[in-house]
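Chapter review: from sequence to fold.
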Amino acid sequence: MNQLVVMIVPLLFSVAFHEVAHGYVALLRGDNTAKMAGRLTLNPIKHLDFFGSLLLPLILKLTGSPIIFGYAKPVPVNFSNLKDVRKSTILVASAGVLVNFMLAVVSGILFQILTRHQSAWQTTIFGPIITDLYFMLYYSVIINLILAIFNLIPVPPLDGSKILAMILPPSLRMQFARLERFGMIIIIFLLLTNVLDRLLSFFLTPMLNILLGR
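The token string follows.
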């Protein structure tokens, strides 16, 4: 049960940072929809999606999936309010991914510091608390990398699809937009066929080796 808690805590804050990043960059680019909706907060409760934030990662954990991930309620953004819609859409869509990469790097640095000094803190009275923090940092690296890589997949409604749509010429952009209605079906198909696991693992493994000091 304790292992589940030290996994859920970094997951909740990782998705909160991800969504706030989207909303904050949108605010900087001229849209205050997220701010007016009270979503520019790191309080994870404001961003929770029952299935995506709690039930899905729990199911993946209990079924022995090698990849544990989840998602939050998307921050509302009115793209028509943005200055220079094409550029701003790319910036807003990229913000969450960049924040997750940054959190993974910071967590990895702190994790390696605690690893190097493990013998010093394990035997202290703070050992149990630091142990929980140690594993939270470990899972924070994994979760943030998974969130970043997963969201870069160019399948609607993931962030990667918004970035790709803005890069495509207008004629192809309209055709690509029609895929959105099938987006979740495609993601579920990729998940059930283990294509998603293999894709994530391909990029995830070398990054984990670096950030966790393997």
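Two observations follow directly from the output. Residues 111 and 137 are 6 Å apart (CA to CA). Residues 2-211 form one domain.
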